[in-house]
Amino acid sequence: MRILLVEDNQELADWLGRTLRRQNYTVDWVGNGADADFLLHSERFDLVILDLTLPKMDGQEVLRRLRARHNSTPVLVLTANNTTQSRVSELDHGADDYVAKPFEVEELEARIRVLLRRSSQLAQPLVECGDLVYDSNSHEFTLRGQPLPLTPRERAVLELLALKLGTTVSKSALAQSLYSLDETLSVDAIEIYVHRLRKKLEGSDAAIVTLRGLGYVLRRVHRG
C-alpha cells in the first residue's frame, strides 16, 4: 500500500517514513504543499498523511484541491492544534481522520489501518479467501493455518489483491502500490510476482485469476 507523507519537518518525516516502511508500506515524502498537490494530480496513493502547516501551500489548501477534484483518497491530518474547533474544521473540509502532535506511533499506525480498511470497504481486520487468510493489522498471510512465507514485493501484491478481494486490479495499479518515486515503475515485473504467488498458492482454494487486458483478481476456486 502506497502512502504520501506530506511533512516539512524532515527529522519527523525521516523517522515516520522508516517506521511505516518497516510495516511494509511504500512511502513517498514531500516537504511542501505545492509538491504534494502536484503529486496528487499525477500519482495514485492509497493514503495521504498531511501536515497542515506547510511552505508554498498549506495543508488545508492541498486538501481542498484534492476533494475539489473528487479524489476520495483517505487523508489523515497531522495537527498541532488539537482544539475541538480545529478537529471539526478539518473533518468538515474533507479529512478522514486526524492525529494531534505529539503522537504515539502505535495510535498513528492503528488509524492508518482503519482508514485503509474503510477505503477497501472491509468490516473487520481479517480477509478470508478460502484457506488463505490476510490479517490487515499484522500485514501477514496464513495458508491452511500456517504462515505463508512471502518476500516484501510478493506480500505487497497479494495484500492489494486481498484488500480488493473479488475485484479486478490492473497491473498499473499494482505497480503504483509497489514502487515509490525513487524507484523505476515496472509493470512487467508484476507478472513475475504473480507467477511466484501462484506457485505458493498451489493446491489451495485461493487463486489469482488473470482477466486478459484488465488485470488480476483474487478469488476462491473449487479444486476438482
TrEMBL record:
Residues 2-116 form the Response regulatory domain. Transmembrane segments: none annotated. The keyword Transmembrane does not apply. Residues 124-220 form the OmpR/PhoB-type domain. The modification 4-aspartylphosphate is found at residue 51. It comes from the Bacteria. The keyword NADP does not apply. Residues 124-220 bind DNA. Keywords: DNA-binding, Phosphoprotein, Transcription, Transcription regulation. This is Response regulator. It comes from Aquincola tertiaricarbonis.
